[in-house]
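stage 2 :: seqdesign
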């Protein structure tokens, strides 16, 4: 399995690949400098030539700057309450229709980048989620063809300011603080994973302690159904991201509540997809 990333090393933005547990630099592959998603999607679709992988320089993962796999998605659409146990821990019933909401691209950060606790709130919570990256323009998908629109999968931390989330009937305001949407580090081709990324362990760990642990098979609305429902309404475009909801174990539902603090570290890991890690910092 080869996983694709966008990184900066020695001052240059380029592609990288995790291949056989080694991070390889791919400076000769074009398109990494562009904010357009098409180059990434083509790379995921077509793969990397074996000879290029054999000749690629090895990189130190601690010495590069990681960027989100898609830097400026046209749309980031998230699902709330998509695991029954998570809905129950917050006192919510299982929704009859998905609780969709939007996240803005300006909130995104990459692997190892600081996840920012803002000046106006100390109630910063973690949410381990599967991210779906769209590979083609799609409207009115069916159950049979919905997964053909998926280019690949990544990890996401839907960092949430819980007090702001509850100031309005819709959750958007608490989900869009700058520096709270961690995304990456890799994009894994859909062909490398089970259909709909089903049956994968998903976990969050705060300072090494397991907080959430579940399986993507337990999503109420699986990937194919989510895409089918969304495209009843709107056109999904290449590079759009659909974030599939979080399992039980979030901080606000604990007694006492657990909030991420400056100096903490949060890890999101999805089986076969990768591990997304971010330190917590305080807004200046």
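stage 2 :: out
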């Amino acid at each position: 399995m080869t996983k694709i990333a966008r990184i900066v090393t020695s001052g240059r933005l380029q592609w990288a690949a995790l291949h056989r547990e080694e991070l390889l630099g791919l400076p000769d592959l074009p398109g990494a400098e562009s904010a357009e998603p098409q180059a990434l999607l083509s790379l995921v679709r077509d793969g990397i030539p074996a000879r290029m992988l054999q000749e690629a320089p090895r990189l130190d993962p601690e010495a590069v700057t990681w960027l989100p796999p898609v830097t400026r998605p046209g749309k980031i659409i998230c699902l709330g309450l998509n695991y029954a146990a998570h809905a129950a821990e917050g006192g919510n019933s299982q929704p009859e229709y998905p609780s969709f909401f939007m996240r803005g691209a300006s909130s995104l950060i990459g692997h190892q980048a600081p996840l920012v606790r803002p000046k106006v709130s100390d109630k910063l919570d973690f949410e381990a989620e599967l991210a779906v990256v769209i590979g083609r323009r799609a409207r009115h998908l069916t159950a049979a063809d919905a997964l053909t629109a998926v280019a690949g999968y990544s990890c996401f931390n839907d960092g949430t300011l819980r007090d702001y989330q509850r100031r309005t009937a819709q959750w958007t305001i608490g989900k869009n603080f700058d520096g709270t949407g961690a995304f990456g580090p890799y994009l894994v081709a859909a062909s490398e994973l089970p259909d709909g990324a089903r049956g994968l362990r998903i976990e969050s760990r705060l300072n090494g302690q397991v907080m959430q642990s579940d399986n993507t098979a337990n999503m109420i609305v699986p990937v194919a159904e989510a895409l089918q429902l969304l495209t009843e309404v709107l056109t999904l475009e290449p590079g759009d991201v659909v974030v599939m909801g979080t399992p039980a174990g979030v901080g606000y539902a604990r007694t006492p509540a657990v909030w991420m603090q400056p100096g903490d570290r949060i890890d999101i890991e999805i089986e076969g997809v990768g591990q997304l890690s971010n330190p917590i910092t305080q807004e200046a």
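stage 3 :: structure notes
- The chain has five helices and 18 strands.
- The chain has a mean pLDDT of 95.
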